[in-house]
Design brief:
Structural class: mainly alpha
CATH topology of the largest domain: Serine Threonine Protein Phosphatase 5, Tetratricopeptide repeat
Number of helices: 9
Strand content: under 5%
Helix content: 55-70%
CATH class of the largest domain: Mainly Alpha
Number of strands: 0
Radius of gyration: 24 Å
Distance between the termini: 51 Å
Order of helices and strands: HHHHHHHHH
Number of domains: 2
CATH architecture of the largest domain: Alpha Horseshoe
Largest sheet: none
Length: 194
């Protein structure tokens, strides 16, 4: 039992080290016992997986997505308006996943400015307004629910004494949702928040 626990702790420690940026995976000397061989295999597997994950630009599990998007944004050689908006939407979505709502709003505002300036047809307007509405809703959620006592407001808002005190995010979200309804009055998506 103690040997298994020790082996488990070693594997967890190696996993933490292996997935930490800039850390090398310590090598364990190969011994005769099965436990040491399994540890060596686990260390090697972990090093491989952590390297694959941290170097990936896959939006679902990689940690290299943001630098990749920033590089794409900074490369004006291939930039079309559509690509510019697409990259900004992806970057804002990445920021939103990490709770960086204000930064996401700045990125989306840049795309909205470009849309108004560079695209007379406003092909991306609804998508950008939708992203802004979602981002402002998330901002309202984070501004109110992550403060002391805020979890009660967002979990069980039963008492009028427990309400969002900072309504900026939700008010801005409503502005964008109303714009979307004006743009597409028959689109039920914006009426039900689906």
């Amino acid at each position: 039992m103690v040997r298994r626990l020790t082996l488990s702790l070693v594997v967890v420690a190696v996993a933490v080290l292996a997935c930490s940026p800039g850390q090398a995976v310590p090598s364990t000397p190969v011994g005769d016992s099965d436990a040491e061989a399994m540890t060596d295999q686990a260390v090697g597997d972990l090093a491989y997986y952590c390297s694959a994950l941290t170097d990936s630009d896959n939006q679902y599990y990689g940690t290299d997505q943001r630098p990749s998007l920033v590089r794409k944004l900074d490369n004006p050689d291939y930039q079309t308006h559509d690509r510019y908006v697409e990259v900004r939407l992806s970057l804002a979505e990445d920021m939103l996943r990490f709770g960086e709502t204000r930064e996401a709003i700045e990125v989306l505002q840049g795309a909205l400015d470009a849309e108004e300036r560079d695209d007379p047809e406003r092909a991306h307007l609804a998508e950008l307004w939708d992203a802004m509405a979602v981002t402002y809703l998330k901002m309202g959620d984070l501004d109110n629910c992550l403060r002391p006592g805020g979890d009660l407001i967002c979990t069980l808002p039963l008492d009028r004494n427990y309400v969002h005190t900072n309504t900026n995010g939700s008010r801005k979200a409503i502005e964008y949702l109303l714009r979307l309804l004006e743009l597409s009055p028959d689109d039920v998506k914006y009426m039900c928040g689906c």
